[in-house]
Write a structure and sequence with these properties.
Helices cover about 25% and strands about 20% of the residues. It starts with a strand and ends with a strand. It has a two-stranded antiparallel ribbon with strand order 1-2. A two-stranded antiparallel sheet has the order 3-4. The chain is flat, with a radius of gyration of 20 Å. By secondary structure, it is an alpha+beta fold. A hairpin with a 4-residue loop joins β1 and β2. It contains one helix and four strands.
């Protein structure tokens, strides 16, 4: 589903979007689509994706440790060998 944003209102259409005159369009995928799992060739996009996903992974590790009273240890190495870690306090 896509959202069309004009200067004064929002319209939702199923699989298409049109752009009338004197307004602007923003296309937003309203659902989670499948992400094709393959190596990202662009170095900048790959680094940005790594940083965002690393942050999400560390957040999820913290959440599961708090919600489920679990002991969690997570170690992530970047492509340059930099270490990122998370561990619950009891470790």
């Amino acid at each position: 589903m896509y959202v069309y944003a004009s200067s004064d209102r929002y319209h939702i259409w199923e699989n298409y979007i049109t752009k009338p005159e004197r307004s602007f369009a923003i296309i937003i995928n309203m659902g989670r689509g499948r992400v094709q799992l393959k190596r990202i060739e662009n170095k900048i996009n790959r680094q940005v994706t790594f940083s965002k996903r690393r942050g999400g992974l560390l957040k999820k590790a913290h959440e599961i440790s708090v919600l489920c009273d679990a002991e969690v240890a997570l170690i992530v190495f970047s492509h340059k060998g930099k270490l990122f870690e998370y561990a619950t306090d009891s470790w």
